[in-house]
Amino acid sequence: MSRSVRVVWDDRLVTYDFGPGHPLAPVRVELTMALARDLGVLDKVELTGCDPATDDELALVHERGYMEAVRRVSATGRPDPAIGLGTTDNPAFPGVHEASALVAGATLAAARAVWTGEAEHALNIAGGLHHAMPGAASGFCVYNDPGVAIAWLLSQGARRVAYVDVDVHHGDGVQAMFHDDPRVLTVSLHESPRTLFPGTGYPHETGVEGTAVNVALPAGCGDAGWLRAFHAVVPPLLREFQPEVLVSQQGCDGHALDPLANLLLSVDGQRRTYAALHALAHETARGRWLATGGGGYELVRVVPRAWTHLIAEAAGAPLDPATVTPESWHELVRLRTGEVPPLSMTDGRSAEFRDFADGYDPADAVDRAIIATRKAVFPYHGLDPQP
């Protein structure tokens, strides 16, 4: 399906590191790249490097005063709680500006490749820092790389960009940056803000002209409910919006093993989402697809498998879920983490679901979440909220 796929990677991306014990451990992307390499997935893509985002590029969405404050923290390592650096979520560390700017630069390199036609799809698995606000760090995120990339695409003449965020946490930073811009459709599927950070992402948050879309799913939602919600909301909106570029944030922290949230997805269910987004990129965005990583805090059993599947799907060569993980990778996992690695690329789930067109069940919490979102935004797009 894909003509050319670029994966942006630089070994320095692991310097985005809040220190020992922090959930966002860079070993997760190190193990992902190693697994993708050992399974031959990286042989099917073009691997390219990147430069840090410049101040002017970061200033497309971030306040310059904030960037100057991040640079001061970066030079000294001293906290600045006024900008959200030096908190439990976002510890201050020397070099934080440089590490964060490199993450943003990697996503920008992917955006450039897609926009110029150098690649049809491009990925930065170290990116997806969707909580960063224009003037503050938040939720493990210092610079908002998806936001920077979207703003850059608009600066290059893109008239419609769709952003689909499947992280378990609401994509609040990206929504805030484009809340009043009808050129950007932001769609976030996440655990209900009643039970999870950041406490936003209710269906009534609709932005201008219904271009902010939020599906707030109940704690305990698994593959069947999640996929039902995704297909009830995302494809109709993308087909109507017809974006020139599809940008996706592929946080895999909705997995049942993730320690920071309460959804019950499997790697198999997540894999089906990647396939759906890939198909929608071709159907609605002329194949232009920019994908980033995001959240994911089960560092060994979930993140590397999930994002290796993502890269393989984007490359047009999806892996058989029964694929055995290589012994070479097992050795690296034991060396870097001391943990027992998963033996295959599947959780053994079928990830089947019923389509919402089959009918709405008001007794089902997932269906109530779906209908709340559809009622809030579908009329803006000329769509019928009813199944």
UniProtKB/TrEMBL annotation:
Pathway: Ketone degradation; acetoin degradation. Keywords: Acetoin catabolism. Residues 22-312 form the Histone deacetylase domain. The keyword Lipoprotein does not apply. The keyword Transferase does not apply. InterPro entries: AcuC, HDACs, His_deacetylse_dom, His_deacetylse_dom_sf, Ureohydrolase_dom_sf. Belongs to the histone deacetylase family. This is Acetoin utilization protein AcuC. It comes from Sphaerisporangium aureirubrum.
